[in-house]
């Protein structure tokens, strides 16, 4: 049985358990606020790093450059539309 306390921070216990050889589970119980009702399923987690590049240019000649910010906005918008009703939370690293 594995109990975690850092679920909302860094998942330290889960990372440690994942690295242990021979540790397997047929079933998984995730405790959460379900009003004491049994549920099947979990929202899960999706983490990724987005990298975009641009090209600097003089303000008077924007056509000679490429805006990394505009590219990032497009990526975030496409990701939000593909994810659907789930909200994306973006935090700085």
Helix content: 10-25%
Can you count the beta strands? 0
**Global outline:** elongated
Assembly type of the chains comes to: single chain
- Overall pLDDT: 77
Number of domains: 1
Cα gyration radius (Å): 21 Å
What does this structure look like?
There is one protein chain. The protein has 2 helices and no strands. Helix content is 25%, strand content 0%. 0% of the residues are buried. It is elongated. It has one domain.
Which SSEs are present, and which pair or pack?
Elements: H1 12-18, H2 68-83
Short key terms for the protein model shown above:
mainly alpha, disordered C terminus, single chain, 93 residues, 2 helices
Short description:
The protein has 93 residues and is mostly helical. Helices cover 25% and strands 0% of the residues.
């Amino acid at each position: 049985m594995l109990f975690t306390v850092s679920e909302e921070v860094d998942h330290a216990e889960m990372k440690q358990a994942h690295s242990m050889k021979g540790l397997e589970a047929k079933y998984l119980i995730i405790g959460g606020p379900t009003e004491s009702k049994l549920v099947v399923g979990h929202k899960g987690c999706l983490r990724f790093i987005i990298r975009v590049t641009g090209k600097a240019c003089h303000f008077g000649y924007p056509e000679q450059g490429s805006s990394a910010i505009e590219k990032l906005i497009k990526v975030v918008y496409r990701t939000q539309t593909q994810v659907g009703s789930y909200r994306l939370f973006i935090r700085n690293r």
